[in-house]
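Work Package 4 report. The design task specified in the project plan requires that, given a folded chain encoded as structure tokens, an amino acid be chosen for each position. We show below one input record used in the internal validation round.
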């Protein structure tokens, strides 16, 4: 028995040695080809999560770019907190459209906008510096906390809120977003109240734990761990897509004219195109509009200017009117632009400087037959591509440059 045990042990050691050699060779190969895909996010005491300072790697979940987060946790170049003389500073708040990992930094709308504002002499005698505070997945509440915790350190003269109508409204509601590890604002006695109960959620506490930070070290330093993490993400995404297609194929036909359209009928993302009748959606809109007004007030108190910019959703600017019309029939909506018009009405009532990008972007897409969202085989879906960012920069520049039309 003893010789047999020694033989089995020897074989196990050889297998283990082979695995180690294989992992080492794979690690070397991944480093040689420049593969790097770290975790870009970490927990944040005020906002739930934030970008990790000085993390760098290759992003390819949608589009493709090399991403570096600066020393203050911004997807941007380095900026001194002391504003240089003769400089107008513009702070951009937003979610994944502003973070914009899908394209190289020099192709983002805020990077292009900085150059355009200087070229058009928007602020005579001043140089322009735009600082990007966008973080993927943020709702308006987290953007307000970013304004309070980060933005004012840089003394901006203008704050731009890049509002994504696709999901920002339901991101501001715990009941609709069903996410516990981020902060929310709720109304209490007519006042918006910051709810920090997310810090007690199991998910947040696990992510903030020492054990999780220890595991993150391996993700940062071992390319093979990054590859496995990315493979898991792709597998989950494809499985989810397969399940959605299967559910759609096997689903019974919906009623011809449902009395009340719900998220179960058309998907939560598409509820934004309808006037809310559900109490949860009414409250989500109420909180969202309250947060925008609160942000406007705090910017005004700092003697800076505030600009609300509504971005485009992929279906709003899909360059085929027939596709858009079929979508409207599917969701039971009369217009693609209900959220944009509603926010314009809010801006008019509250005297908030406002710019809607969706409608002129739709006109541009139709005229030029160009997709402004999506990449590769998924054109027409997802986030802005380089063409979308360029057009957004042009439209914002037209708003801010008095001599550009």
């Amino acid at each position: 028995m003893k010789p047999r045990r020694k033989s089995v042990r020897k074989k196990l050691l050889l297998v283990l040695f082979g695995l180690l050699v294989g992992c080492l060779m794979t690690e070397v190969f991944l480093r040689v080809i420049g593969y790097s895909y770290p975790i870009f996010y970490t927990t944040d005491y005020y906002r739930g999560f934030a970008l990790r300072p000085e993390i760098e790697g290759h992003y390819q979940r949608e589009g493709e770019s090399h991403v570096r987060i600066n020393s203050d946790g911004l997807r941007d170049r380095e900026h001194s907190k002391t504003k240089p003389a003769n400089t107008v500073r513009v702070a951009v708040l937003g979610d994944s459209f502003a973070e914009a990992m899908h394209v190289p930094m020099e192709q983002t709308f805020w990077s292009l906008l900085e150059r355009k504002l200087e070229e058009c002499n928007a602020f005579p005698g001043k140089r322009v510096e735009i600082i990007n505070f966008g973080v993927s997945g943020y709702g308006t509440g987290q953007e307000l906390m970013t304004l309070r915790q980060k933005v004012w350190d840089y003394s901006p003269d203008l704050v731009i809120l890049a509002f994504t109508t696709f999901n920002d409204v339901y991101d501001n509601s715990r009941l609709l977003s069903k996410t516990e590890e981020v902060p929310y604002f709720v109304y209490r006695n007519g006042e918006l109240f910051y709810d920090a109960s997310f810090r007690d959620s199991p998910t947040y506490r696990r992510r903030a734990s020492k054990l999780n930070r220890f595991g993150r070290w391996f993700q940062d330093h071992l390319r093979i761990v990054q590859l496995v993490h990315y493979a898991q993400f792709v597998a989950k995404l494809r499985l989810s897509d397969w399940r959605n297609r299967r559910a759609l194929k096997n689903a019974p036909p919906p009623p011809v004219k449902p009395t009340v359209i719900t998220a179960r009928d058309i998907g939560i993302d598409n509820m934004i195109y309808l006037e809310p009748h559900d109490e949860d959606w009414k409250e989500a809109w109420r909180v969202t509009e309250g947060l925008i007004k609160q942000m406007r007030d705090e910017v005004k108190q700092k003697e800076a200017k505030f600009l609300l910019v509504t971005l485009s959703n992929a279906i709003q600017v899909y360059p085929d009117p027939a596709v858009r019309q079929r979508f409207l029939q599917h969701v039971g909506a009369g217009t693609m632009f209900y959220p944009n018009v509603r926010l314009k009405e809010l801006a008019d009532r509250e005297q908030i400087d406002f710019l809607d990008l969706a409608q002129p972007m739709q006109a541009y897409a139709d005229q030029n037959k160009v997709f402004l969202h999506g990449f590769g085989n998924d054109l027409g879906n997802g986030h802005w591509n380089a063409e979308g960012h360029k057009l957004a920069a042009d439209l914002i520049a037209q708003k801010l440059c008095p001599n550009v039309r």
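Residues 2-32 form the longest helix (31 residues). Validation will be extended to a larger panel in the next phase.
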